[in-house]
């Protein structure tokens, strides 16, 4: 489990992460979204103990992270720029990780070669960007750590490899309660992977949601009432947004399909369509009119 309270981390008088709280439950996957410069890498490096926080508390499994080698053995941080020894082969990197991680699983390391299909004898400095990422994930999964901190690991991977990596993460979460925090610029990239998603903007968490709640609970309702009912008020629903398209009203409503259907059914509408929203739409409505530049994350 990862717990962060009141975390502030800055560079030369400028705070890249500001008074941030975050919890990632054991056995869950947290998606950290944010546009360029939002503070994702700063947050993740502080979680991984590479940076010392200026203020606040960062705990992994209840223990402070910074300058705590015992905690670092229980986590793997896979950076957007890998700190590999460039002249090492993949096999030599495996040996290096084996010395660092007590739970290192050599059998798994060998077996995962069939997934990543990169020769053990290849040197790190001869790999492409995407292959480099793959090797990071391969080593990270073989380390069998309790926590994985992944900074844009899917960037540069082709769609088949993305799917494979997601499946491997799912498997570890399900089988051994791996805890994962993973960053990305793109909601769509994370929506089928994460249990929770948070959007970081200018160092602050502007929205955090449970993905299951988001997916099942918000609907777009298009309706037109008959002349005789036009003035009746529709109450008892949590309406996030209202607009009119010609004679049809379009409302965004939080609530189950059934509850919405029941409530509108009482009005005997001439038109009633209850549609699920895409996740991007849900986030946009949830964010309301707040002036955040989230388009890059949501509208791809
Ligand atoms: N070493 C550093 N020294 C000074 N400023 C830094 C340093 N690292 C990051 N910053 C600044 O902190 C802010 C947050 O950067 P960070 O790398 O954490 O964002 P990010 O969300 O990971 O961005 P990206 O998606 O572009 O990788 C940016 O304004 C960046 O310029």
Task: Walk me through the structure.
This protein is α/β, with parallel strands linked by helices. The chain is 33% helix and 30% strand. The chain contains 11 helices and 14 strands. A hairpin with a 2-residue loop joins strand 12 (238-245) and strand 13 (248-254). Helix 4 packs antiparallel against helix 5 (129-142). It is elongated and about 80 Å long. The model has no long low-confidence stretch (mean pLDDT 89). Residues 2-227 form the ABC transporter domain. Pfam families: ABC_tran. InterPro entries: AAA+_ATPase (IPR003593), ABC_transporter-like_ATP-bd (IPR003439), ABC_Transporter_VariousFunc (IPR051782), P-loop_NTPase (IPR027417). This is ABC transporter ATP-binding protein.
Distance between the termini: 31 Å
The small molecules bound here are: adenosine-5'-triphosphate
Radius of gyration: 23 Å
Strand proportion: 25-35%
Strand order of the largest sheet: 6-7-8-3-9-10
* Number of distinct helices: 11
Q: What's the total count of β strands?
A: 14
Shape: elongated
- Content-based structural category: alpha/beta
Q: Output mean pLDDT.
A: 89
Largest sheet: 6 strands, mixed
Give me the secondary-structure topology.
Blueprint: E1 2-11, E2 14-24, E3 29-33, H1 40-47, E4 55-60, E5 63-64, H2 69-72, E6 75-78, H3 90-100, H4 106-116, H5 129-142, E7 147-150, H6 159-176, E8 179-184, H7 187-190, E9 196-201, E10 204-210, H8 211-217, E11 218-224, E12 238-245, E13 248-254, H9 257-265, E14 271-276, H10 279-287, H11 295-298
Parallel strand pairs: 3-8, 3-9, 6-7, 7-8
Antiparallel strand pairs: 1-2, 1-4, 4-5, 9-10, 11-13, 11-14, 12-13
Helix pairs in contact: 4-5
The structure holds adenosine-5'-triphosphate.
């Amino acid at each position: 489990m990862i717990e962060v309270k009141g975390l502030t981390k800055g560079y030369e008088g400028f705070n890249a992460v500001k008074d941030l709280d975050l919890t990632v439950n054991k056995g869950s996957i947290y998606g950290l979204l944010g546009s360029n410069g939002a503070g994702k890498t700063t947050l993740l490096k502080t979680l991984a103990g590479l940076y010392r926080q200026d203020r606040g508390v960062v705990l992994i499994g209840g223990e402070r992270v910074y300058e705590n080698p015992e905690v670092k053995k229980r986590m793997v941080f896979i950076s957007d720029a890998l700190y590999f020894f460039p002249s090492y082969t993949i096999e030599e990197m495996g040996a290096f990780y084996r010395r660092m991680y007590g739970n290192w699983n050599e059998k798994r390391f060998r077996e995962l070669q069939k997934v990543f299909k990169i020769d053990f004898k290849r040197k790190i400095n001869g790999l492409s960007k995407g292959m480099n990422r793959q090797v990071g994930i391969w080593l990270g999964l073989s380390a069998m750590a309790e926590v994985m901190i992944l900074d844009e690991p899917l960037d540069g991977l082709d769609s088949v490899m993305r799917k494979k990596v997601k499946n491997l993460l799912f498997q570890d979460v399900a089988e051994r309660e791996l805890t994962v925090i993973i960053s990305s610029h793109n909601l769509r990239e994370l929506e089928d992977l994460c249990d929770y998603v948070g959007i970081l903007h200018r160092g602050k968490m502007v929205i955090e949601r449970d993905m299951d709640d988001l997916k099942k609970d918000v609907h777009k309702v298009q309706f037109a009432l008959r002349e005789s009912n036009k003035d009746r008020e529709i109450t008892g629903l949590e309406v996030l947004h209202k607009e009119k398209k010609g004679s049809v009203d379009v409302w965004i409503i939080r609530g189950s399909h059934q509850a919405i259907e029941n409530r509108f059914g009482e009005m005997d509408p001439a038109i009633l369509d209850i549609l699920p929203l895409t996740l991007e739409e849900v986030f946009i409505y949830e964010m309301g009119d707040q002036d955040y530049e989230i388009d890059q994350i949501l509208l791809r």
